[in-house]
Structures are given as C-alpha cells and as structure tokens.
Predict the structure.
Amino acid sequence: MAAHWVTQQDAQSLTGKERQDFEAWLAQDVRNFGAYVRAQAFFRHLNYRASPSLSHVPARNTPSRPPRTATISRRRFLPLAAASIGSLMLYDTARDQTVRLERGHELPRNYAWHQGVITLDALTTAYLPEATSSDRIEMINGRLGIQLHSGIVSVSTDTLRLTGTAADFDLTRSPQGLRLQHYAGTLTWQTPDGQHQLTTPTAVEFTQAGRSLQATCRPLSPDDIIEQTAWRQGTLVLNDTTLQNALARFAPYTRLKLMIRDPHLSGSRISGSFALAAPEDFALSIARLIRCRVEISNRSIAFTA
C-alpha cells in the first residue's frame, strides 16, 4: 500500500530497486511505534501529502519537463529520506531514556528530580534520565547544581564521575577545567587515579596533568556557601570583588554587552547582593557604589569615570 501510494503521488511506477528499498525502509520503521511517529512527522514536515482520492490520480501533464525528472527526484528522495530518518532514529535511540536540558543567556532554572532539585545555570547543557529508576546525569558544559534530600545521584563528564548520597553540590565545567563545590552529604568521585570522598563542605579544583586529573581542595566557610549557592535563586553575591570579575560573573545572564571604558575602574571593589534578572539595576547600583557613570543602551552597558 505504501509503495502504491508513492506511485500514485509521482504518477510513475517504482523500479524494482526503489520498491525493494522503500519496503525495507518501511519494515525497519514499523518495528516500534516511536519510529513510526518520527517517520510520520518527517513526511509531514516535507509536505509529502496524499491526494484527496487515493483511488485514482491522473498522470501529470508536464510536456515542458523531461519525463525522467520525476524519476530522478524520487530516486534521490527515497534514500535521502531513509538516511535522514535513520539518523534521527539513531540519535533518539542512543538517548531514548534521557532528556536534553539546555540554557542560553537565561536565568538559572530549577527542576524537580527524584528526591531533590537540579538547577541548570546559564549556558549549561546536560542530559538527565527520564526514568525515575535511573540516577545518572551526563554533564556537557556550564554549571549544574544538585540538592538531593535522599537517595543517590551520579554525574559524569568525559574525565570525571561523581556519586552523591543525600548530597548538595555544584559542578562547573568550562574550558579552564572542572570545579566542584560540595556543601553537604557524602560525595565520591572516581578518576583514573582512584576513588576519593568528601563529607565536609569543600571546594575542589580539577586540573588535567597528562592523563591524570589532579584535585586541589580547600574548605568552605558558611559565608562561602551562601555566596556560592546564591545563583540557584537568581542572585549574584559579591564579596570584595573587582568590577572586572563582577561583570564576568554577570555576563552569562544577559545578552547585553558589559564594558569598562576606563581601565582604572576595573580594579574597583564591590560587595553586595544583586538580582540576575535586572542587569540595568545591577549597573546603576554598581555605578553608585564605585561613584562612576554608566551608559545603558538596548545593546550594551558601559562604565565610565
């Protein structure tokens, strides 16, 4: 029936090879319902519609176009469509039990997950399992905050695997390396060098040294924890931070370009709490704190003396 439908749409018969390829493609697609739905969506996206009446479709009268054109078009379409559907199916099958979460220049977002909350920062991509029986998270880039009241969670990158039990922690992955902020619970990480465990609030910097991953640890104070976890609630806490560093920390949450036009302002020190959702208020508050001027447009924020 499917081959007959294609024949009617093209007003030409399928060759033996085309019929064989088409039937094989259909047989592959109907193995599961998800593949069938994806194939239907793909066909509809291409506007490859059936005619109002499948009983008879008159041959198209197109004398100005060589008769071979329709056959060539169909011959190109069938394998390309099959390849495209195959690639879509292969991608979805590889991650059929996961959901991709991605944030751009946006505010952090909280997701209820298992017995806790996962927070995705701006410019972050991660894969989370859809099934409640799975606890594995794959982190691609950015910053991920996890607050698990009970149970176990596993977070992996290409070089590190963390396992937390009733844990509260942030993991940041950037071109500069991996940074871990552990606030509560038990956290174990696995590297090619062995297994390590944290049970007290600790900041860990991971650096690549050849094939091994070296960890540098320092304890976190209660004030450190307040400052480091504020981003989850859409707040930026600065504690004697330079203006240059403050703008770098705020930049991921806005598409406005943040600039310092007078270099001597870069080292100005700032302390305070600022809402990530209000870049203009942030700029005006900073200007009052360090007694400078600020120019705000629909594209940029610039600090001048």
In short: Confidence is low (pLDDT under 50) at residues 42-96.
